[in-house]
Amino acid sequence: MSARDPRRPGLDRRRRDGWLAAHKWLILRRLAQAGFLALFLTGPLWGWWITKGTLAASITFDVLPLTDPLMAVQALLAGHVLEVSGLVGAVLVIVAYALIGGRAFCGWVCPVNVITDFAAWLRTRLGLKEAYPLDRRLRLAILAGLLVGSAVTGTIVWEFVNPVTMLHRGLVYGSLFSAGAALWISAAILLLDVGVASRAWCGHLCPVGAFYALIGAKGLVRVSAVNRDACDNCMDCFTVCPERQVITPALRGAKNKVGPLILSRDCSNCGRCIDVCAKDVFIFTTRFHDGAGMAAQSPRDGVLQGEKML
Ligand code: SF4
Ligand code: SF4
């Protein structure tokens, strides 16, 4: 095997299966993120009103309300009275992410993920070391702070700085102020992630990710290190994973005592570990099926069958 370059994770997978196969889940996520944004933009741009509103609160085909549940909770704490459609929309979103796995929002919907993934790629290519490690519990403290802040001030605190809402307002309503603010906040997140700590924003600070992690802690869709015996310790999955601490228990933890399912609420179901692993260790599955049985087959058979399960 050729010497590994830690700045180029997934190189062996790309050499074996080609670029497309080695970026399958990444490509699907980008398509999903672009698709969600497009739903909101077809109305203002071409008059095709599929979804009206923004990710904060919207209605699709004039019948399906969807509300950002974190915004709804803050509004209630602030003493606002929500319309029934707003409450129904929040409940629908909570139920959906509770079933799927809450942090799927981070990997598959949130547009900020494109910036933070780019920052992580840049850090890896430049070989930057962790200069100022942050505590991942900070995001929970920030989440608690903004909930208390909303209750005390009577305002929806997070919406003053929420880059996602600002970006949507800028694009959907043509608000120059929101577009400018979104640009500045996005630039700050990029600088933070490149210059301060790897995955500083999504992995350590963002209260939205922390909130969705709590909602989807028992979500059905899980990644399993089903072929973990084939692992050659290349570390590529750890390099690309936005929450690398979630991999170790499933991959390395007392192999016969801890199952191969990645059960941490922080896993964003991004699928990058599946993309880059040349040993086909990981598959998507459900929390009720850890992929046991597939490991006895060839790794490639295992991953193909596992992907078909979804
Ligand atoms: S599971 Fe093992 S072989 Fe696969 S990318 Fe991770 S460290 Fe490398
Ligand atoms: S374990 Fe895999 S799917 Fe989960 S966050 Fe890490 S790279 Fe993404």
Structural features, described:
- This is Ferredoxin-type protein napH homolog.
- The chain crosses the membrane at residues 31-51, 71-100, 138-158, 170-192.
- Keywords: 4Fe-4S, Electron transport, Iron, Iron-sulfur, Membrane, Metal-binding, Repeat, Transmembrane, Transmembrane helix, Transport.
- Residues 222-252, 258-287 form the 4Fe-4S ferredoxin-type domain.
- It holds the Pfam family Fer4_5.
- It is globular and about 55 Å long.
- The protein has two domains: 38-215, no CATH class; 220-308.
- Helices cover 53% and strands 7% of the residues.
- It is built from 15 helices and six strands.
- It has a three-stranded antiparallel beta sheet with strand order 1-2-3.
- Helix 6 packs parallel to helix 9, helix 7 (138-153) packs across helix 11 and helix 8 (163-172) packs antiparallel against helix 9 (176-195).
- With 310 residues, it is mainly α.
- The model is unreliable at 301-310 (pLDDT under 50).
- The protein has helices spanning 11-17, 24-46, 69-77, 84-100, 104-108, 112-126, 138-153, 163-172, 176-195, 200-205, 207-215, 236-240, 247-252, 272-276, 299-308; strands at residues 51-53, 57-60, 64-67, 221-224, 261-262, 283-286.
- A hairpin with a 3-residue loop joins strand 1 (51-53) and strand 2.
- The chain binds iron/sulfur cluster (2 copies).
- The site of one iron/sulfur cluster has 15 residues, from helix 14.
